[in-house]
Design brief:
Strand order of the largest sheet: 11-12-13-14-15
Oligomer: single chain
Structural class: alpha+beta
Number of helices: 15
Mean pLDDT: 94
Helix content: 25-40%
Length: about 375
């Protein structure tokens, strides 16, 4: 029987949240992709795992080691640039049913028109590849696609008061077209990846099911399916042969056989300010991370997520950045009494965050 604390410690260790130094090459979370949402997104997630990101910031588009792609759930994720072609193969839908689920309501008009969803995604990718020859803002590409694609691919968008492609086919086709996101651009800018050639296969470590079980295991089929945004039956069909059953707090889950010893013996230490969309907080078994429903609601609200203060493998507080003019503070909402050494460690991490953002830390503001 494995208890939730062991699971939390295992994930801290496996996701390298307890290390002080690391590199892009040896950072495990880049296998699954590091979601880049908000100012404390992908690069901050690498920073808290010991990767020196100073100087990348707004110049990240010039960095040779990393690439930003729309992948799982249509979200922007950061990967190793050398993995880009294999990532495209790894995140592609497995079947017609899988593709239909991943694009949500965009599948219905395609099916009504007798167009297989997989063929439709290939068609969108082909048009994107033909259109984008140099950096292009999303709006311009959307306009060009609107002119090129027939009606079943398009919808009326009330917020834009215009007709354009459904969003998810647009996003999921971009990586298959060999297009990368230019980081820190709003609205998004896409450009062709130099030397991109579609891959027919990928290394096991880049398989999203396998990577989830390694980094966020032990997990159920449903939890993995929710993360990948695929049907449960498809995830089961792609389940690793070396996945073994373990019991976590009375529930049967699975993890990779090679990781079972680490699960039994993992310890966790150190203090980190996790960004709101850090992979550690993306696990689909939230009750394993935070058992109190009220605290879980505060950590994962529908809008405006805070970050989490991780202390020795446990979420000990919430945090939010506060910037006013030249003043930058970090507001901390403790979930328990924080001792003096813990507060000192939190302050050090806040200083690190301020340096990452290129601004001096004014101070910490602890909620009463």
């Amino acid at each position: 029987m494995i208890d939730p604390q062991q699971v939390r410690r295992y994930r801290v260790r496996t996701q390298q949240l307890d290390r002080e130094r690391g590199s892009v090459a040896d950072t495990a979370v880049l296998d699954l992709g590091v979601q880049d949402t908000g100012p404390d997104g992908a690069l901050w997630a690498l920073e808290v795992r010991g990767v020196a990101t100073a100087g990348l910031g707004s110049a990240a588009e010039h960095h040779d080691d990393l690439v930003w792609l729309w992948t799982l759930r249509g979200a922007p994720h950061c990967y190793r640039r050398t993995d880009a072609a294999q990532v495209a193969a790894a995140v592609a839908p497995w079947s017609e049913a899988d593709a239909s689920k991943r694009i949500f309501d965009a599948s219905k008009p395609l099916k009504d028109a007798g167009i297989p969803v997989l063929d439709a995604l290939d068609a969108v990718a082909g048009q994107m590849r033909a259109i984008v020859k140099e950096p292009m803002v999303k709006g311009e590409m959307s306009t060009r696609l609107h002119e090129a694609m027939p009606e079943p691919y398009q919808r009326y968008c009330r917020s834009c008061d215009a007709v354009h492609l459904y969003e998810m086919p647009f996003r999921l086709s971009a990586v298959q077209a060999g297009l990368e996101l230019v980081p820190d651009t709003s609205p998004p800018v896409l450009r062709p990846m130099t030397g991109f050639a579609a891959a027919d296969a990928h290394e096991d470590r880049l398989d999203p099911v396998r990577a989830y079980l390694h980094l966020l295991g032990p997990a159920t089929h449903k939890q993995v399916a929710e993360y990948v945004d695929a049907p449960v039956r498809e995830v089961k069909a792609h389940w690793p042969e070396d996945a073994v059953e373990v019991e976590v707090d009375g529930e049967t889950r699975w993890m990779l056989a090679a990781d079972t010893e680490a699960l039994q013996s993992a310890e966790a230490s150190g203090t980190r300010l996790l960004g709101p969309y850090d992979l550690y907080l993306q696990a689909r078994d939230r009750a394993t991370l935070v058992t109190d429903p009220a605290k879980a609601k505060a950590l994962w609200p529908v809008l405006g997520r805070p970050g989490a203060v991780l202390v020795d493998g446990e979420v000990a507080a919430l945090w939010r950045p506060r910037k006013s003019g030249k003043k930058f503070t970090v507001a901390v909402e403790p979930w328990r009494e924080l001792h003096a050494p813990e507060k000192k460690a939190i302050e050090a991490e806040a200083e690190r965050l301020a340096a990452f953002r290129g601004i001096a830390l004014t101070g910490l503001d602890y909620a009463a």
